Amino acid sequence: MACDLSLGRKVPCKDSIGGLKNVYFVNFGDATGYTYDVTDTDVITDVAGTPTAFKYELDGTANNLVQNINSSADTGTTFFEQVLTLQLKKLTPKMHKELKLMVYGRPQVIVEDNNGNLHYCGLTRGMNVTGGTVVTGGALGDLSGYTLTLTGQEPVPANFLGDTLSGAGFSITSGT
Q1: In a domain, 97, yes or no
Q2: How many CA atoms lie within 13 A of 37 on its CB side?
């Protein structure tokens, strides 16, 4: 049967850390196909098309990726809800424009964690901005920037990218 387990798991070493380093936004539809690792279909090794990944550097602890498992024995369905929470510092006219485009679209998002893993979120359906704020704090130490929540619903957890973004076929555009 296709749902049978295939391996066990030992307690792993304590050599990983939490947190996100970067996120990369890809316009939905720019990656037109995917090549998966021949031994692990949870790993994407190459993308087709001419996708550009727009890099957003992150710092601080307000950024996270959570993948909620939604499974129902009653309906026989399972899907994974990918929820990305971001805090982007400093209000600018250019970021206002990008924010509107992000909200109007449904980009794919590649999340780079502090362990160097690349998680490809919104692979088949994209991710939607489902909430956020444009905020100027009241005190000198308060946030002046953006908070965003992006949500995707996918049939599988976010795939890993098995290579660097450029090695997998993305061109990368960094901020200024």
Answers
A1: no
A2: 11
User: Residue 15 has what pLDDT?
Assistant: 85
- The count of structural domains within the chain is 1
Tokens of 157: 């957890």
Q: What is the pLDDT of residues 95-116, one digit of tens each?
A: 999 999 999 999 999 999 999 9
User: What's the one-letter identity of residue 139?
Assistant: A
Q: Per-residue pLDDT averaged across 22-36, rounded?
A: 96
Three-class SS of 26-56: ECCCCEEEEEECCCCCCEEEEEEECCEEEEE
The structure's pTM equals: 0.93
Check: CB of residue 143 under 8 Å from CB of residue 137. Answer: yes
Residue 120 falls inside a structural domain: yes
Confidence of residue 26 (pLDDT cuts 50, 70, 90): very high
Place of tokens 């049939």: 155
DSSP 3-state of 102 = helix
Boundaries of domain holding 56? 20-90+106-173
